[in-house]
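Pipeline run #58 for the internal structure catalog. This entry was flagged by the ingest filter as a single-chain record with no existing model, so it goes straight to prediction. Upstream metadata was stripped on purpose; only the residue string is passed forward. Reviewer on rotation: M.T. Logging verbosity set to normal.
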Amino acid sequence: MMMMMMMTMMMMVVVVVMVTQSSADKLNKQLESQLAELNNKFDVTQRELNDATAQKNHAQSEVSDLSRQLEEAENEVSQLSRAKQALTKKLDEAKSTADSETQASAQQRVLRVFFKFQEKNYVF
């Protein structure tokens, strides 16, 4: 009878071990599935991070290029402004010279007319 009890107990242990092994196998499959899912999510996230990094680098490159273009444009504006001032000064000088020459020429004409009238003894 003792032997029978021992065999029954052993059979119970074997059943418990088999059930436990089955539960462990099932849990292992679930964990492997979760791991695969997490690895896929990690890969997607890594690709998104790489894309975002590439976009950031591209944007920084564009900002650098636009900053350089802006600096060049500002330098050109400054040069053009200086050139405009120089040309405005030359124009003002030319106008002043022309006005002076026109006034001197007019004065000379007036004097010539005056002397012509004086030669002919006209009185003013």
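catalog note: Residues 2-119 form the longest helix (118 residues).
catalog note: The chain is about 95% helix and 0% strand.
status: ready for reviewer M.T.
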